[in-house]
Amino acid sequence: MRTTVGIIGAGPAGLLLARLLHNAGIDSVVLESRDRTYVEQRQRAGILEQGTVDVLRAAGAGARMDREGLRHDGIELRFARERHRIDFPALTGGRSVMVYAQTEVCKDLIALQIEEGGPLLFEAEALAVEGVESERPRVRFRREGREDVLECDYVVGCDGFWGVARRAMPAEHSRVFERTYPFGWLGILADVPPSHDELVYARHDRGFALLSMRSPAVSRLYLQVPEGTDAGSWADEEIWDELERRFETADGWGLERGAITSKSVTPMRSHVHEPMRHGRLFLAGDAAHIVPPTGAKGLNLAVGDVVTFARALVHLEETGSAERLDAYSETCLRRVWQAERFSYDMTTLLHRAPDATPFEDRIQLARLRRIATSRAAETDLAEGYTGFPLD
Question: Which residues are catalytic?
Answer without folding.
Answer: 72, 201, 293, 297, 385
